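Colleagues,

For the teaching module next term, I've prepared a clean inverse folding example: a structure given as tokens, and then the sequence designed for it. I'd like students to try predicting residues themselves before seeing the answer, so please don't circulate the second half yet.
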């Protein structure tokens, strides 16, 4: 498992944001459309560090190191109060991202590409044959993610956990993301407002093994095709056959200077449990 420090720091992003082997998930057909090469192209300016302040809560810093081709080499999560830290290293093979490893962790992220796009992200235990697989399919016309199928796996094979489907507006921004479990229960994220456009690296808002709570939003394939970030969105839960309920909503403000994101304040509200309301602030350094 990941270190507590790293998960706590990355959870701040989520808060701000937060089958069997013989029956494999469907694969998308080859597409002649141009595709982004995620390992070589970095959206925006190279980030040096990010200071994270949880209100209430602790402070953290994430420091970034980049390769000469502008691909991400590593980042370090630091607790300034204790100086405890954890490194996350990016490993490339033949110019393509292959693995992401975390210091003192018993799991690693495995990346499989097809036609220049991420086909699968796996969180794989380093000792036991267990973990999670996330299979991505894309809309051929514009390379936006169309679906994620999330499976747990062990020696017996894969078991479907959730299928995630995306609905977009005419500007290719998500309107709704619906996660459906095999029992019919649904989690729906609806977007009401977006920021102005700015440049950013998709890795800044993502986690190497899809551990963030809001992975349906904060994942590299989706982040890579967006030119802005959500400013207002809400979470809705619906049990099979029951009425839908709004459980949380987010309000996020962004300060952008010369196309660079310099500050981000996110507030999450719990309509039925206001004592859980939280704020997280990010200050970005280049």
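(Answer key — instructors only)
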């Amino acid at each position: 498992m990941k270190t507590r420090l790293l998960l706590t720091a990355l959870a701040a992003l989520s808060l701000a944001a937060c089958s069997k082997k013989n029956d494999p998930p469907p694969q998308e057909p080859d597409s002649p459309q141009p595709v982004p090469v995620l390992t070589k192209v970095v959206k925006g300016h190279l980030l040096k560090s990010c200071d994270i302040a949880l209100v209430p809560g602790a402070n953290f810093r994430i420091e970034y190191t980049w390769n000469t081709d502008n691909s991400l080499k590593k980042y370090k999560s630091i607790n300034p109060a204790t100086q405890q830290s954890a490194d996350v290293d990016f490993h490339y093979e033949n110019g393509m991202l292959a693995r992401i490893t975390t210091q003192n962790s018993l799991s690693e992220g495995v990346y499989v590409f097809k036609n220049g796009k991420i086909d699968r992200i796996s969180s794989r235990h380093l000792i036991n044959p267990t973990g999670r697989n996330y299979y991505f399919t894309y809309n051929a016309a514009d390379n936006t993610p169309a679906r994620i199928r999330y499976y747990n796996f062990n020696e017996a094979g894969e078991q479907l956990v959730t299928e995630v489907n995306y609905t977009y507006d005419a500007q290719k921004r998500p309107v709704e993301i619906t996660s459906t479990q095999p029992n019919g229960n649904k989690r729906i994220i609806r977007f009401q407002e977006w920021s102005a456009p700015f440049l950013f690296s998709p890795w800044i808002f993502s986690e190497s093994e899809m551990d963030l709570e809001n992975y349906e939003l904060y994942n590299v394939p989706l982040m890579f095709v967006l030119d802005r970030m959500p400013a207002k969105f809400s979470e809705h839960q619906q049990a099979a056959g029951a009425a839908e309920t709004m459980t949380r909503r987010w309000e996020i403000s962004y300060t952008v200077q010369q196309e660079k994101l310099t500050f981000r304040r996110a507030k999450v509200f719990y309509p039925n449990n206001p004592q859980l309301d939280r704020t997280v602030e990010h200050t970005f350094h280049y």
